[in-house]
Structures are given as structure tokens and as C-alpha cells.
Amino acid sequence: MKEIKLFINGEFKNSSHGAKHISKDSARGEAIASIHLPSEEDIERAVESAHKAFYSQEWKDCDQNKRADFLLAISEKIKERKNEIIEWEIKDSGSTVRKAKADVHNAASYFKVLSKVTRQFQFTEKDEQASRESFSENFREYAPVGVCAQIIPWNFPLVMAAWKIGPVIATGCTTVLKSALETPITANILAEIIQEVGVPAGVVNIITGGAAVGELLVNNPLISKVGFTGSTEVGRKIMKSASGTVKKLSLELGGKSANIILDDADLNMAVDGALYAFLYHSGQACDSGTRLLVQEGIYNEFIQKFTQRIAEVKVGVPEDPTTGMGPVINENQYNRIIDYIQTTKNEGAKLIYGGERLVGGAFDKGYYIKPTAFEITPDNTIWHEEIFGPVVGITKFQTKEEAVELANNSIYGLAGAVWSKDEQKARSVASQLEAGTVWINEYHLLNPGMPFGGFKQSGQGREMGIEGLHAYLEVRHIWRSDCNSREQKQWFDAIF
Ligand code: NAD
């Protein structure tokens, strides 16, 4: 069994009150990790260590090139340890082999891209337009926002930790990151890597715990910024807590993304795309395409191919490389999904496929749900509420204007997609969607150079892209005067 200690001030330590939590394998329910749970005192020590590191000369002296070197070294170490990380990610989060491999690749390439961006970023720049000859030179200076508290969910443990820690190192901030109680292992491996590549002690601290640990972090007055990924419900609570000391916020929250299939789409591709959009990681992805809008001209043919292809998705144990969809994370999540399925049935929606638990053999050791599809309307609960499971609601529409209206009928705005062979038409629909990422003839793919985040109640701010760096920076305007005689400074006369 793996032991997950607290990573505070560059060292792995036992919890001061000795409390532990046992983390279980998603597919088998077997104990795989013993986690040291931080006491209130440990949490304070972690924040103080991040605070001390932020003001230390050592971290101030780490210029952008040195910080870029750390990011590149982390990327290399992730690649070196990829087999071990993949194995733990599969056990800890129920990721399939293919998903775990993609996650490790994505985390490594994110650190590499960020390293390049960090090296090239202009931390000081003169604004030629604002500056006036013989009057003033005006500069923007970008400064790290300070000590951060970062909180991540359980669905993409390594990638979420990478997206949080990357910009902290890039900008010269420091952090206490709290990984999810359900999936602490790969963030802990990342802590080992961070220690190994020589990031100064205290710059990155990693602890694990539940809501109470997260709350203590968010409420700590030494924290300047909270970076949170999780549900909209918890995001709302964090906004309230952060208001006490006006902490800066980045919130990556829930979604109910619309996947729009227009009449002229490549039908076979759109069917596979629609399945990939809502079944990837058993639907436990924030950007899942869980509202599938299909134009009436192809509706019947689409549904026929969709029901044929959905039956071909292999549900199985995650470590089998041929598995397309594994279990959901745990019993709580299983109950939540089954409740939503039952509610939708009770509401009279037509069940097109699935709608039940898979049982027998290896299925009995984990929580496996059949890929599930209903025909729904905006009157159904699952039109509006995020399930976070392998469940899609399908709706027929007539015109593209109606599709846009339906797609935007949500409190969320994280992502969406349009499938069509007519590029102009697809672009026009895409540009009307209230969503932070819109794919055309694609789904789920992300680019570390481009921003990711939500419109509306899907969040605030962006991760990745240059926007993700700015989220961890304050801007300081430096005004250097060229009016060096008292006669020139007529504005002083306002008080004389
Ligand atoms: P969650 O909101 O329950 O928990 C997320 C994290 O917050 C966990 O680490 C948890 O311990 C912590 N937490 C819970 N209550 C807290 C509180 N009161 N104060 C501080 N921290 C608290 O979410 P989850 O069930 O772990 O993850 C699923 C959710 O995450 C979904 O809604 C999903 O859409 C969202 N998500 C969003 C993105 C994105 O980029 N937008 C990515 C992944 C997941």
C-alpha cells in the first residue's frame, strides 16, 4: 500500500495528529493508499511555508529562465516515470489505460509548453501608445499574485495538479495544493518530482483532504488567490469565503455542454464523436457533451447508428487496454448517477439505451453503469443539472437558430461542439454559443497554448494559454515622468 504523506516545506511529513484515510482502487474497492490527513496545525504550517517561500530571496532570485528550467525538468521527469504514474492513475481514479496514457502525455506536454511560454513572456513591457515623448514613459510590470490555495477534483488528478502548479512556478507565486481525498496518488508523485528537480522548499506544498481542509485553506488570511476546480455548488461557497479578504479567484466549475449535429454532418463521424463526447472517462469530465442536439433531417438515421455504435463501446476493467469505458469513481458517484437516471425515467423521458448498472464477474467489484441515452426536453431535470456520469440527453431541433437557443438554455457555459461539413455555417453557430471552448467536428481535445474555462456559472478566469498565466499575475503600471521642471508640472498648481 502506498503511503501518502504531507508535502510541506520541501519535505514529506506525517500528519501531526496521526489521522489517516484509506484510498481505494475504483475498480475493485481494494485499499491502495494510506493518506496522512493534515491537522489544522499542519494546514497552517503549509500556508506559512508557502508564505515564507514567496518572500524568500531564493525564490525572488529565481528568474524566469530558471523557473522555465524547473518546468521543463518536471516535464522530463513525468516522462521518465510515466509507466508508474499510469499504473497509479488507473488504480486511483478508475481511468482506462488509454485515458491514463493520454493524461500523462498531456501533463508532460503542458509543463513543456509552459516552460517555453515562461521563457518568452515579457514580465516588463513599455506601452508605446500610452507613453508620450518628453512627458512620460509608461510600463506594465507583471508581478506574481502571491501565496495561492489550489483545490482540485478527482476526475483528472494528474492533469488538474499540473494545470494548477504549472502557472505558480511560471509566475513566481507559491502554493498549497489540496488534492481530492479520492485520488491523492499522482499529485504526490508530482511532489516527489518537484522536490527532485530542486524547486525551492515551500514554493509548492501538497496536502490531501476533504471539504474541511479546503475551507481552512480558503479562509486563511495569508492566501492571496484561490484556484479551484470542482462543482459550481462548491465554487459558490468559495466565492463567499474569499470575499472576507478579497482573494483573487480562478474557478473552473461544472458544465452541461451542448453537442450540436447539423443535417450536413459526416454522420458516422458525428455518431462516434457524440459517443466520445459523453462517454470519455465514464462521463466524469467537466466538458462532457451531455446534451446532444440533432437536426430533424438526420435524426432517425442518427439514432439508428447511435444505438448500434453505443452497443459496441466495450465497458470493462480499466487496466484492460481494450476497455473503452471503465467504472465510475465510487459508490457515492454511482448513487448520484443512478438517482438521475431514475428521476429521468420517472419524468417519462424515453430511454434509448442503457439506464442500469452492469453486474456479474468483475463488474460486481466496482461501479459500472451501462452507457445511457434518453430523449429529453428542457423540461427534464437532466437538461439543467450536471450528472458527471455516462448519461446523455438527446433532443431534436429544426433550425440552427433553434439549436443555438437550446444550447444556450443553461446556467453553464463550459464547452460545446458543432458537427457540419459546411465550415461557414459551423463557424457561425460556434460563435453564437455561450461557451469557453467550442469544437467544430471535434470533441474534448485541448491545446496548452489556448485558454480553457467557462462562460456563465461554469467559472471565472481561464487556465492554460497566456490567459492562464495572467490569472497568476498582478499588473503594476510604472509611470516614469519626463516632466522634470516645476514649470512643466502645472497640475501641482491645483493645490497652490
Ligand atoms: P467538488 O466540488 O465536490 O470537489 C472539488 C474539490 O473541492 C475537492 O478537492 C473537494 O475536497 C473540495 N471541496 C469540497 N467542498 C469544499 C469547500 N466547501 N471548500 C473548499 N474545498 C471544498 O467536485 P468533485 O465532485 O470533486 O468534482 C466534480 C466536479 O468538478 C464537477 O462539477 C465537474 O464539472 C467539476 N470539474 C470542472 C473542471 C473544469 O475545468 N471546469 C474540471 C474537472 C472537474
Give me the secondary-structure topology.
Blueprint (H helix, E strand, L loop, with lengths): L1 E3 L1 E3 L2 E3 L6 E5 L6 E6 L3 H15 L2 H4 L3 H17 L1 H12 L3 H24 L3 E3 L9 E9 L2 E5 L5 H15 L2 E7 L4 H12 L7 E6 L1 H9 L5 E5 L2 H11 L5 E5 L5 E4 L5 H13 L11 E5 H15 L20 H16 L3 E4 L18 E4 L5 H4 L6 E7 L2 H8 L4 E2 L1 E5 L3 H8 L6 E4 L14 E2 L2 E2 L4 H6 L2 E9 L15
Parallel strand pairs: 1-5, 8-9, 8-11, 9-10, 11-12, 13-14, 13-19, 14-17, 16-17, 19-20
Antiparallel strand pairs: 2-3, 4-5, 6-7, 7-23, 12-22, 15-16, 18-21
Bound molecules: nicotinamide-adenine-dinucleotide (NAD).
Care to describe what's here?
It is a single chain. The protein has helices at 40-54, 57-60, 64-80, 82-93, 97-120, 157-171, 185-196, 211-219, 232-242, 267-279, 296-310, 331-346, 381-384, 400-407, 423-430, 465-470; strands at 2-4, 6-8, 11-13, 20-24, 31-36, 124-126, 136-144, 147-151, 174-180, 204-209, 225-229, 248-252, 258-261, 291-295, 350-353, 372-375, 391-397, 412-413, 415-419, 437-440, 455-456, 459-460, 473-481. It has 496 residues and is of the alpha/beta class. The protein has two domains: 2-253 and 458-478, Aldehyde Dehydrogenase, Chain A, domain 1 (3-Layer(aba) Sandwich), CATH 3.40.605; 258-440, Aldehyde Dehydrogenase, Chain A, domain 2, CATH 3.40.309.10. Strand 11 (225-229), helix 9 (232-242) and strand 12 (248-252) form a beta-alpha-beta unit. It is globular. Residues 151-155, 178, 180-181, 210-211, 214-215, 218, 229-231, 234, 237-238, 252-255, 286, 386, 388, 414, 454, 459 line the site of nicotinamide-adenine-dinucleotide.
